[in-house]
């Protein structure tokens, strides 16, 4: 009796020792691969700007530790005397964890590769989260189907059910699907990209931050976020200040008295305009300011001074500086402003 107990105790101790050794070996192997190989490769690819290889290594990091432990565990269950049903259960659990982890890693990789591809084709495609999320969702769906197959669940009835239920889902999510399709149309059309400065027909304007599943996000100059459904963007009229390029003309209207010396007004506007162009960072330095008398009204003579700016946001500083300088200059030169100004 004591011999049997001692033999069982020795077997248990031997199994515990095996478990400790295998799990330690798996963990250390994973850490060595992650820290000594993948970490160094990541630095090399970052320095050489090999973005594709960098994305692959970035997606594998840390996961290799788990995979090394899973491989060691799978070998371990074959070394320990266990019932076949228990071994089968352990290995099925290992496969499930492996499938889930590989799916997550591939989803990260696919999203990263899509971002890299979009960055290389930035003149044709905007860098939006919609495309990245679509790539990741596709990988997750494939991973889910593989997982179901591993669990012994037949995929064919599920696919059939999805086909039949898809009609009902499409009707229930008609608004969501409309915005999703509209988002794809926005991306494919290339008339609106992340970073563009746009003005909607309702008056809101700002920079396009992102194009998501359902909405286009626009950040105005007050740093507030304007949320517009994608379907509204595709059916409404908007002005894109970045097409065909970001450089744009800016007209600054001023009103002078009809008794003013118009030649002098024109000359002073040009002189001050040249000073402002050299002073304001966003002004196009090679552009000569243009002065045009546009209309005569009961308040006085309306004069428009035209500039060009590199970016739409630069117009505000340019107008600010020009109006300050031209007002001071007119006062020094005795050019009168009307007592009451129109709404220009």
Automatic annotation (TrEMBL):
Q: Where do the Mechanosensitive ion channel MscS C-terminal domain residues begin and end?
A: 251-337
Q: Which Gene3D superfamilies match?
A: 1.10.287.1260, 2.30.30.60, 3.30.70.100
InterPro entries named among the record's database cross-references? LSM_dom_sf, MS_channel_1st, MS_channel_C, MscS_beta-dom_sf, MscS_channel_2nd, MscS_channel_C_sf, MscS_channel_TM-2
Q: Which GO terms describe its biological process?
A: transmembrane transport
Record-level GO cellular component terms: plasma membrane
The transmembrane segments are 16-38, 59-80, 92-111, 123-147, 153-173
| Location(s), subcellular | Cell membrane
Highest taxon in the source lineage? Bacteria
Q: Where is the Mechanosensitive ion channel transmembrane helices 2/3 domain?
A: 133-174
Any idea where the Mechanosensitive ion channel MscS domain is?
176-241
Q: Which Pfam families match?
A: MS_channel_1st, MS_channel_2nd, MS_channel_3rd
What keywords would UniProt list here? Cell membrane, Membrane, Transmembrane, Transmembrane helix
- Indicate the family of this protein: Belongs to the MscS (TC 1.A.23) family.
Q: Tell me the protein's name.
A: Mechanosensitive ion channel
> Which organism does this sequence originate in?
candidate division WOR-3 bacterium
